[in-house]
Amino acid sequence: MTVQRIDPPGSNAAPGLIGQVVTTTGRRLIHLSGQLAWGRLRQLHRRHHAAQAAVIARNITTALAAAGAGPDDIVKEVIYVVDYTPTSPAHPGCPP
Q1: Distance CA 95, CA 24 (A)
Q2: What are the DSSP E strand ranges found in the chain?
Q3: Rounded to an integer, what distance in angstroms lies between the CA atom of residue 46 and that of residue 49?
């Protein structure tokens, strides 16, 4: 499948992060179920949000690879964060 990301003039472009418009060609479309911060032994990582996000990203990469795809093939991604507030303690790799 070929993915084309388009940022029309005047759009809120974020090159390298998202495309304001995405088109695809080809026949194959992969859907992933919701991913959790579970490790290989199904233990839930309860550390800070950044550590949980890293585990989820690894799980997504593993799932995509099993279908012959990779992170560059993602068209849409939705992230839900629970129990985070702006006053949560700073975590490594996260802005204050």
Answers
A1: 34
A2: 2-6, 21-25
A3: 8
Q: Which pLDDT belongs to residue 79?
A: 79
Under 8 Å CB-to-CB from 19, ≥6 apart: which residues?
4, 5, 6, 7
Nearest to 41 by CA among 24, 55, 23: 55
DSSP-derived letter for residue 71 is: G
In the numeric block, the tokens 């990203």 are attached to 57
Distance CA 73, CA 92 (A): 28
Neighbours of 40 (CB within 10 A): 9
Rounded to whole angstroms, how far apart are CA atoms 17 and 20? Answer: 10
**What mean pLDDT is predicted for residues 82-93?**
64
The pTM (predicted TM-score) of the whole model is 0.61
Under 8 Å between Cβ of 1 and 26: yes
94: left (phi over 0), alpha (psi -120 to 50) or beta: beta
